[in-house]
Amino acid sequence: DTQKVTPVFVRFSTVQGSKGSPDTVRDVRGFATKFYTDQGVFDLVGNNIPVFFIQDAIKFPDLIHAVKPEPHNEIPQGGSAHDTFWDFFAQNPESTHTTVWAMSDRGIPKNYRQMEGFGVNTFRLVNKEGQSHFVKFHWKPIYGLESMVWDEAQIVSGKNIDFHRQDLYESIQKGDYPTWELG
């Protein structure tokens, strides 16, 4: 039923930075969606980049350790300035595609409302006739897609490290709800 409205909860996040790091750093953004359906709750994990860093889940802890700040001093915050970041990507060529996306304009969204989302996983869906199809879910922002350039992001983060969160909160408070088309 294409007319049915399903309540959802969306959690936006950065990947590299710790709690309190600036919103406007060059980073992959998490776009996790929880659907409250008549059949139960369905979680769809996503990012703002259509490809994922790794193909083997066993590498995920190594990826996270490589991109997060050093545990003893929390430096650097949400950036690619430390050697572990580049060492991981040099040793895992499958990450090149994601790295190129992150280093492009897509690495710094203008705001969450104008950011695309892409499901991390591929699903096998079966129709009524028993035919199966592999699909990945994509969220397309109704407000269009927009990014920040590096210089703009640096200025914004110097004035307001919570820029994306504040923009989202203020838009919702005004009744200007963010909207995406899921396909």
Count of separate structural domains: 1
Mean pLDDT value: 93
CATH architecture: Beta Barrel
Q: What is the element string, with H for helices and E for strands? A: EEEEHHHEEEEHHE
Give me the number of helical elements: 5
**CATH level 3 topology:** Catalase HpII,  Chain A, domain 1
Question: How far is it from the N-terminal to the C-terminal residue, by CA?
Answer: 14 Å
Structural class of the secondary structure composition? alpha+beta
- Major sheet: order of its strands? 4-5-8-9
Assign the CATH class.
Mainly Beta
Which segments are poorly predicted (pLDDT under 50) over 5 or more consecutive residues?
A: none
Q: Share of helix among residues?
A: 25-40%
Give the C-alpha Rg: 18 Å
Portion of residues in beta strands equals: 15-25%
CATH homologous superfamily - what is it? Catalase core domain
Principal-axes geometry comes out as globular
**Main β-sheet: number of strands, strand sense, barrel status?**
4 strands, antiparallel
Q: How many extended strands?
A: 9
